Amino acid sequence: MVPGWAGALAGLVSGGVALGMAQLVAGVVGPETSPVVAVGDAAVDLTPAPLKEFAIRTFGESDKTVLVGGVLVVLAVIAAAIGVLARRARAYGFAGLSAFGVIGLLAVLTRPDAGALDVLPTLIGVVAAAWTLSWLLGRAEGGPVPGSATSGGVAGDGAGVKRSVAGADDGPPVAAGAAEDVGVERPAVMRAGAELRAFDRRRLLTGVAGGVVVAGAATVLGRQLGGRQTVDAARVGVALPRAANPAKPLPAGTDFHINGLSSFITKNKDFYRVDTALVVPQVEPADWTLRIHGLVDRPVELTYDDLLKMPLTEADVTLTCVSNEVGGPYVGNARWLGLRMSEVLRRAGLRSGADMLLSTSADGFTCGTPVDVVMDGREALFAVAMNGEALPVEHGFPVRQVVPGLYGYVSATKWVVDVKVTTFDADEAYWTPRGWSAKGPIKTQSRIDVPRPGDSLRAGRTKIAGVAWAQHTGVDAVEVRVDGGQWKQATLAQVPGPDTWRQWSIDWDLAAGDHTIQVRATDASGYTQTEQLAPPAPDGATGWHTVTVQAA
Ligand SMILES: Nc1nc2c(c(=O)[nH]1)N[C@H]1C(S)=C(S)[C@@H](COP(=O)(O)O)O[C@H]1N2
Ligand SMILES: [Mo]
User: Fold this and answer.
1) Which one of 82, 129, 205, 433 has the lowest number of neighbouring Cβ atoms within 10 Å?
2) Which residues in the chain show pLDDT less than 70?
3) Ligand 1 centre and the CA of 482: distance in Å?
4) How far is the CA of 391 from the centre of ligand 2 (A)?
């Protein structure tokens, strides 16, 4: 029998070929049908809230890379184990690969928008792996050993493998091997079934090299094919209409332009991204429709063109993620252009008793948004543009929701395609059964942007600055204290309304030594941020952002 490491290597390479072929086929069928992505997606779905929080806290926006990396490492270990087992009997290897295939297929088929063709990447990947494993082990087992009874034929060898004993493509393995390294490799002659087989390291390794090339080429080609299936071209071609209800011009002084302080408007490329999608959904605007149904008198269906022709509204709104820790980065402010949700809902005719809008994205994510919030006059939008350009694909192109005052997980559905008017009693959105509160009003918060934690400053006058938010209520005051002393009022920047964050700044004389800086905001309802620390789950973090620095 071939040694364990050789089996593990054959298993690994076979796994690589499987993933490469799957990637190649997924490049044609659709990137989200790759088993790795589907298994990763399923893992995201099944992740309990505390683990999700841990992942976001630990890996931030690279949590997806870490997840895919994790899936690959687990796959590699199992593939190696399958290779080791398959040395004893191919059937063990095939059974292992089949089990894998079933898991991959389950993950692919339980995706919300799964189609029949989506099974192809996994199926072809598994078949390719079985073939490769068999072929590699066949090569490793070498030819029959001279003098053994079965010289001249190898029974039960890998499927479709052309074997030759002498004078073939890569030479008579035993003869060449024997000539080269008698006493080194050859002693690995063992019993395999009734036959004596030699372990042929050279033929295994050349096979492995071939497998690696095939796996790599298929992966690269698959990525290129998949990369072409993007909606970038359609996005660039969108002609955005003028706003029928333009945003009020920004008042002078919304931005202090202090180095290190978050700018009032967050550039699209700097805007935080949080979603469950491992592969960004590619939704062609030409294929997009929005269906509004459920507890309404007249269900509505809009195309992208319909939407662009309706009177659009522009609004400056700060989005915030419920997963944001005190002082965290998952908050950003943009100018959105879109259709008022209330307008469409009025057209559809809301039935009494409806208290929830269950919106669904193209990839099956859902938000549950309170009807009264959307209908109370605030600028809740089906947004098509962000900071003057069509929505970036990762921020929801072609259409997403934006609702001032609600955390993203209950309101900001990207790639939105369906809104069911319903009740909180009858329906549950994505994060609710995963341990997050059904309703998610944003909690009043403030953050110190400068100085950064751990900064070494020159003693003396220094600028402390940051942002505070209390969407749809508005920030009325921000106070700062150092080393637990007196709170002092910070200077507030201008804001266009209650739906954006507000910059604040204060100059402070810092004596030499270590200092602790803290901030708290008071909103327009009179509420001052509590000092009480709460973690993000289930309904948003609380506490005062605290930064320690040294002055010298
Ligand atoms: N389709 C979809 N929309 C989604 C999400 C998601 O996972 N899938 N996440 C929501 C959450 S939790 C937040 S905080 C916002 C973030 O929007 P952004 O990525 O544009 O900043 O999107 C929301 N919309
Ligand atoms: Mo979020």
Assistant:
1) 433
2) 57, 143-197
3) 36
4) 18
